[in-house]
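From the methods appendix. Each design record in this collection lists the tokenized structure first, followed by the designed amino acid sequence. Records were kept in a plain field format so they could be parsed without special tools. The example shown here is representative of the layout used throughout.

RECORD:
FOLD TOKENS (190 positions):
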């Protein structure tokens, strides 16, 4: 529906995770992106939320004609706009289901956005799922070379209480996330 309003529109963020079956939660909302601003609307009890984007990278047209961001771009978009991904826990559960991604596509997307805080958050999360995702040390080293010296918060730009600083990535991680990770197996299963 959303992609039919304007042919340049595509499914993004949590909706792209849902489209690929990588979601833990099901929302009655479709998040889609494109260049031309469209007001949010509701159709058949589903809310359609538009997020304007200047990024034209890695938009795939699938067998059914639906345009959706690549898994790698979806990952970076979700890390960048955690609220549009259903929250940090949803990201962690989705990323736990993803295997062997294309590192070049991840880097391409990170370079496009070129935000130090995004490199920090992405580095921390990608390292957490390094084995599942098939992330090389070279890719993590490159991401690390792009981070800033200021600390950031994993799940928002606002200070969150009860965090632990990951000194490598300079990211304050909520303690409840560390608890979730510690309860999983060595492969970060939840």
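DESIGN:
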């Amino acid at each position: 529906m959303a992609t039919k309003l304007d042919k340049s529109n595509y499914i993004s963020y949590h909706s792209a995770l849902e489209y690929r079956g990588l979601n833990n939660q099901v929302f009655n909302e479709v998040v889609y992106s494109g260049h031309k601003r469209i007001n949010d609307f509701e159709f058949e009890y589903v809310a359609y939320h538009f997020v304007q984007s200047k990024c034209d990278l890695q938009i795939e047209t699938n067998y059914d004609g639906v345009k959706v961001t690549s898994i790698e771009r979806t990952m970076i978009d979700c890390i960048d706009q955690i609220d549009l991904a259903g929250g940090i826990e949803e990201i962690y559960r989705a990323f736990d289901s993803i295997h062997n991604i294309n590192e070049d596509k991840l880097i391409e997307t990170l370079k496009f956005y070129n935000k130090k805080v995004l490199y920090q958050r992405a580095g921390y999360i990608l390292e957490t799922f390094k084995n599942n995702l098939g992330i090389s040390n070279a890719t993590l080293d490159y991401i690390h070379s792009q981070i800033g010296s200021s600390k950031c918060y994993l799940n928002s730009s606002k200070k969150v209480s009860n965090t632990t600083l990951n000194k490598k990535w300079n990211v304050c991680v909520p303690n409840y996330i560390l608890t979730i990770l510690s309860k999983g197996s060595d492969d970060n299963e939840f």
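APPENDIX NOTE: The beta strands are 10-11, 29-34, 41-43, 46-52, 59-61, 67-69, 152-153, 163-166, 171-174.
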